[in-house]
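Structure ticket #2291
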Amino acid sequence: MENIEYFDYQKVARAVGLPDKILNKIKREVKREFPSDKMLYELHVLRAIRSKYWQKSSKIR
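Resolution: structure written out below.
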């Protein structure tokens, strides 16, 4: 699922300054939820990045 086909979430991740470590964690979690649907996988990774929830949760851990 590395080749982006629907949503360029990597561009958004770079724009908001998301560290690669957190992006990889988001991708792993979303892949567990949507293992065979590439569009939903990419959409939910993008939504997780844009929500900026990762900023709050990365400070806690």
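Closing remark: The helical segments are 9-16, 20-33, 38-51, 53-60.
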